[in-house]
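Re: that backbone. Tokens:
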């Protein structure tokens, strides 16, 4: 299991605390420092069963600068969204937990983290 975190994020810290309390074995990836490439983002999206716009933090200042809220959300713009996430990792929703069964969850709630633990 791997968890993508921003240490400054309270949701990430909560997820780590829960994983620790449950005795889970996991690897921490500080994705703002160890930035995922476009292929990694595609792979995580597949594991999540989501589209890039589903994991984009559209309220971030860089999202406003890029005009992301105005971008189409369709197959034709998917690569543009993925490129933006790779170029601006702060736009990626967090934490993302990749489960041992090949799936992943966005672990923003205790329920989601427990879901990842059960997989």
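Recovered sequence:
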């Amino acid at each position: 299991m791997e968890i993508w975190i921003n240490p400054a994020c309270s949701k990430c810290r909560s997820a780590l605390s829960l994983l620790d309390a449950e005795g889970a074995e996991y690897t921490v990836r500080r994705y703002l420092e160890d930035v995922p490439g476009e292929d990694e983002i595609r792979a995580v999206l597949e594991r999540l069963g989501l589209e890039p716009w589903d994991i984009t933090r559209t309220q971030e200042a860089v999202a406003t600068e890029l005009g992301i809220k105005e971008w189409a959300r369709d197959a034709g713009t998917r690569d543009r969204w993925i490129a933006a996430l790779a170029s601006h990792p702060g736009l990626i929703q967090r934490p993302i937990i990749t489960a041992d069964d090949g799936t992943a969850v966005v672990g923003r709630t205790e329920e989601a983290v427990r879901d990842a633990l059960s997989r």
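The chain is about 40% helix and 10% strand. The first strand starts at residue 2 and ends at 5.
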